[in-house]
Structure formats: C-alpha cells, structure tokens
Write a structure and sequence with these properties.
alpha/beta, 5 helices, 20% strand, globular
Length: 212
Amino acid sequence: SGALAVAGGRELGTPINKLLALPFTLKVATRDFHPADHVSFDTSHPPPNNKAFESSTTISNPQNPSETATIPIWPAHCIQGTPGAEIIPEIDISKVDRIIDKGRNKRVEMFSAFSDAFGNKSDAASFDLAAYMRGEGVSRIFVVGLAGEYCVRCTAIDAMKERFEVLIVEEGVKSIDEGEKGWEAAKKEFEDKRIKVVSIDGPEVQNIQVPS
C-alpha cells in the first residue's frame, strides 16, 4: 500500500523472512528515504508535464553537470520521517544487520543500493554498500525486493560491476510491470550479464543450510 504501491508487494514478507532465517554472512535491507522535494516527484514539477508514471524529467549529475539522464516521474513516496519510508511490518527486521537509506539527495535518482543514477557513491546513500560487504568478506549476494525492473535491476547490475556474484531470488521480487517491457525485459538483461535468476526452492538457496 502507499503512493507508489507495487501489486503484491506485501506478499514478499513470507519469502524474504524465509531467506532471513538462513545463515547468510550479512543481511542488508534498503529503503528509499527521499526528501519531500525530490526531483522524481510529480509534486516537484509544474503541470502538464508532471503526470506520475507517464511524464519524465531530465536531471544533471551533481558531480558533472554536463552529464544528464532522463528519469520517470513518480508520485511522492518514501518521504523521510513518514510511515511510507519504513520497512513493511511483514518483514522481520530484527534479522537484518543493517539498513541503507538511499535516494536522500533531492537532485538525483537512486534506484540502486550501490550508487546513484550516474554511478556516484555519495551522500545520496547512507553508506558505501560495496565497501561494507567487502569488509565483511562477502563475495556472492542474493537480491530480492521492489520494484523488479527498477531498484532490483539496478542493484543487481551494480553489484555485478562491483565484482560480486549476483543471484536474484524470483519469489522475492515484485515489479510495477511484470510483462515484456518490465520484469521480463530485466530478466533478459540479467541473462546477457550472467546474473542468475533462481528459485527459493532451488539448490542455490537450499545449499545455504540452517545450523542444526
């Protein structure tokens, strides 16, 4: 539920909690943590070109203003200090080692947990995830969450760029568009980049054994 709800999103509590019960080296959650005037919000732009899910806007790289990117316009969502920015209660957050707040810079979009839309590691995120993972000895990551064709996709691709082995657990993902232009297109891209999409019941997950 919420301004930018993804259909079936709350159903992810069950598979995510199942994964959180496994003995991973590190368990990290991310959340959008936007200022109220974030550049991606429909409320930050005048009509008529501020229609959520339809309009787009051009942003500039804060570290290189000559570099630009076009991003979608969204309803205002996940605003700092509001219930919409909290991890859903269906997820057992007590099993999470650390939470990343991302999208904190109002001038730039940040789908990935690793860097902003221009690849910058900056105050748009609350800390450097790649460095943190390496410091904990992580070499392989399992990705789940919302939305599949945006935050999950960008996080997985950036993790691959950071030289982690990346597996996406499909039962733990929901997308805004589950079809050919959304999640299915993302999965084709994953295949091209050698990012594995696996089942929660498959050997990749089953081989992570709960200690007896």
